[in-house]
Fold:
Amino acid sequence: IKREGQTFLKLSMKKKIIIGLVGVVVIAAVAGGFFWWENRLTPVEKWDMAKISQPSDFTVTEIAEQKIIENKSAGLTFAVPKDWIATSTPSMFKISKPGAREKNSIFMEKGCRIIVEIAGINTNIDTVKEELKTGVWGKYMSRQDQIIINDKTALLYVASSDTLNFYHYGIVIPYHEKIYSIILNTTPQDKDICSQNFQDILDSVKIQ
Structure:
C-alpha cells in the first residue's frame, strides 16, 4: 500500500509538473505572439510610403434620401445626404455639401467637405495620438478624444484657426492593418452646421 501511495504521489507530482510546464509554454506563446504583433507595427518613418486608397476604389449608390459611399476592398461603407456631391482628384476622394466652395485641397472658402483616405498602415491608437500631437496640425489642436465608431476604437480630433480661417474635424480609426481617416474640412463660421452633418454621417460608418 505504501508503495502504491508513493507511486500515486509521484504520478500526481508528474501531472502537476506537466501542467505547470504547459502553462508556462502557453503564457510564453501568448506573450511572444503579442510582442511579434507589436514588432510588426509599421514604423512611423515609413508611413509616407504606405499604399493609399485611390478614388476609383470608392463607389457611390443612390437610395431613397441617401448616397451610400462604399470601398469594398477596405470594407468601408457610410451614408451621406442625397444632395451631397461626390467628386475626386487623381489622388483624393471627397464629398461636399451643395454650395460648398474650396480654397484649395486643404482649406475651404465656405461650406462642408469630407475627405476619405485609407492607408495600408499597421499601428495603434496611441501612436496615432502622438503623431497628431507632433504633426503639422499639432499646434492648432484644440480637442483629442478616444471614441468608439462601429465598435472600433477611434481617435477624434479638432484642429482650427480663426486667423487661417479653417476648422478640421477628423476621425482616425486604426483597424486590421489599415488607418481609416474621415475628415471634415470647413471654416469657423460654418463649423456648427457642418459638425452636425458630419456627426450624422459618422453614425452610419461601418467597417468590416
